[in-house]
Amino acid sequence: MKARLIFLSLLFLSLLNLKAQQCNPTITSPRLGTMFPDKVVFCNSESETLSTTQTYATYQWYKQEWDWQTPNTNPWVPITGATLQTLTINGTSDMLYYFKVEVTQNDCTAESEPVMADGYAYGLPFMMADFQPGTYEEVNGEYNVCSGASVQLNDGYPLVYGAHTWFKCVPGTIPASPADPCIIPGATGDSYTATDSGNYGFYACTEYCPDQCEFLGDFAFIKLNFGSWNFCGNLSTGETKPKENSLSIYPNPATQVLYIGRESDKKYPEVSIIDMSGKLIQQKKDHTYNEAIDVSSLVPGIYMIVSKSANGKLYRNKFIKK
Questions:
Q1: What is d(CA 212, CA 110) in angstroms, rounded to the nearest whole number?
Q2: Region at 83 (left for phi over 0; alpha for psi -120 to 50; beta for the rest)
Q3: Residues with Cβ within 8 Å of residue 312, at least 6 apart in sequence
Q4: Long-range pairs, 283-288, Cβ under 8 A, ≥24
Q5: How far is residue 90 from each of residues 21, 30, 36, 216, 295, measured CA to CA in Å?
Q6: In sequence order, what are the residues at sequence separation of 6 or more whose Cβ sits closer than 8 angstroms to the Cβ of residue 272?
Q7: Which of 6, 23, 89, 258 has the fewest CB atoms within 10 Å, i.e. is most exposed?
Q8: Is 186 left (phi over 0), alpha (psi -120 to 50) or beta?
Q9: Taking a C-beta distance cutoff of 8 angstroms, is the pair 230, 147 a contact?
Q10: The sheet that has 127-131: what strands, in order across it?
Q11: Which residues, 6 or more positions from 238, have their beta carbon under 8 angstroms from its beta carbon?
Q12: Under a CB-based contact definition with an 8 Å cutoff, are residues 89 and 46 in contact?
């Protein structure tokens, strides 16, 4: 009798386990988890097939557009005709979307955990500039910099992009001819230290997709004018005119997104956007220096952006929303 009870118990547990498996769809794909555990990263010219690890009676796939905010309030939308065990996604129309599948099997209906077609390899490059305090001033979107000082220019996505081509002026073609005089010889890293006047920018290819390259865009180049400006003082003794605390901000003017911060700060517990009347318009918590801030919903005009670093230091910048 005891042996029979044990057998029935094991049989019951097996049936429960089988039902749990039937009601626990899991998405897989060849490149899921190659860079991030719950994300598929593929190049924009490629496609990728999502599938469930088990078979079911019916399937319905859904997609949800990524949102920089948490929680994501974008709706889950059923994909028309996506009722098979597999779903093919591509790098042209599906990047920065989450995907999940709802399945049925007998009396079981369940949804998978979502996976994301990540935009890691598609992140557009942006440039950040680190100035030495007191050695520069901004005039009409250009920067006057004291002779003897330097400005470090950085690709804001150093982990994404590999080989760079740095420019000291806007090249004639993209990609640039090897003989283009705007190319800075030997400057192929994700940062460049400028000590001479020029209009600086870069062209770079992603490491994950070596054939996928992006141009910074001439609108995002930074114009540096090195010289003996009145505010410079004596750099050799450090006697420079104090400069209001500010950060590099790109692009400015901005239409959709802007980037603000410096790598040395890493994170900013709070970033606030204030209109010229002093009203708080938008605020972002736990901002990382290489994250985009969505300003697409702002009314065109001039705004102040106040950033608070982890050590409590405040930075103030103005930007124009087009």
A1: 38
A2: alpha
A3: none
A4: 287/260, 287/261, 288/261
A5: 29, 14, 18, 24, 28
A6: 280, 282, 283, 284, 305, 306, 307
A7: 6
A8: left
A9: no
A10: 127-131, 151-155, 191-194
A11: none
A12: no
DSSP labels, 187-207: --SSEEEE-S-EEEEEEEEES
Count CB atoms within 10 A of the CB of residue 233.
Answer: 15
Compute the Cα dihedral for 152, 157, 160, 164 and give only its sign. negative
Mapped onto helix, strand or coil, the DSSP state of residue 120 is helix
| Series of mean pLDDT values for 10-residue runs along the chain (322 residues) | 45 43 84 88 88 94 88 94 96 91 94 90 80 83 90 85 95 95 95 96 91 88 92 49 58 81 73 77 83 86 80 77 81
The letter for the amino acid at 305 is I
| Per-residue pLDDT tens digits for 165-215 | 999 999 999 999 999 999 999 999 999 999 999 999 999 998 888 888 999
Contact predicate 253/319, CB 8 Å? yes
State how far Cα 286 lies from the chain centre. 15
Element (H, E) at 8: helix 2-22
Task: State the DSSP code for 40.
Answer: E
H-run or E-run covering 18: helix 2-22
State the amino acid at position 210 in one-letter form.
P
Give the CA angle between residues 301, 304, 308 to the nearest 5°: 150
**Both tokens assigned to 282:** 């938008």
Q: Are 182 and 267 in contact (CB under 8 A)?
A: no
Q: How many CB atoms lie within 10 A of CB 191?
A: 17
The Cα–Cα gap between 306 and 270 comes to: 8
Q: Is residue 253 reached through a cis peptide bond, with omega within 30 degrees of 0 on the bond before it?
A: yes
Query: For residues 290 and 129, what is the distance between their CA atoms, to the nearest angstrom?
Result: 12
User: Tokens representing 193?
Assistant: 């230290």
CA distance 90 to 291: 24
Peptide bond into 269 cis (omega under 30): no
